[in-house]
């Protein structure tokens, strides 16, 4: 898994590239549906041609196994 780990708070971060805003928005929507289904919600930043997804668990103060699983599930949305 090629997610970057950042600090303050400790979190998993990855930016996904798309051909245009519509594709980026569609992907963000799929991530949102995943988050609702799993009741675990990321920070999403949508820009023209890219979406940055950040996973961490607020109550744990950082990255948990659930965050790693959500990152894997996020990757699977591309396939």
From TrEMBL:
One function term, GO molecular function aspect: 4-alpha-hydroxytetrahydrobiopterin dehydratase activity
InterPro entries assigned: PCD_sf (IPR036428), Pterin-4-alpha-carb_dehyd (IPR050376), Pterin_deHydtase (IPR001533)
Coiled-coil zones: none
Annotated signal peptide: none
E.C. no: 4.2.1.96
Catalysed reaction equations from the record: (4aS,6R)-4a-hydroxy-L-erythro-5,6,7,8-tetrahydrobiopterin = (6R)-L-erythro-6,7-dihydrobiopterin + H2O
Gene3D superfamilies: Transcriptional coactivator/pterin dehydratase
Domain of life: Bacteria
Keyword list, A-Z: Lyase
GO BP terms in the entry: tetrahydrobiopterin biosynthetic process
TM spans (from-to): none
Membership in a protein family: Belongs to the pterin-4-alpha-carbinolamine dehydratase family.
Name of the protein in its database record: 4a-hydroxytetrahydrobiopterin dehydratase
Organism listed in the record: Thermus arciformis
């Amino acid at each position: 898994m090629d997610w970057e780990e950042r600090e303050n708070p400790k979190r998993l971060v990855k930016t996904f590239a798309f051909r245009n805003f519509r594709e980026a928005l569609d992907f963000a929507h799929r991530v949102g549906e995943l988050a609702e289904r799993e009741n675990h919600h990321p920070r999403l930043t949508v820009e023209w041609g890219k979406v940055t997804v950040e996973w961490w668990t607020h109550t744990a103060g950082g990255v948990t196994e659930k965050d790693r699983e959500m990152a894997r599930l996020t990757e699977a949305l591309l396939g």
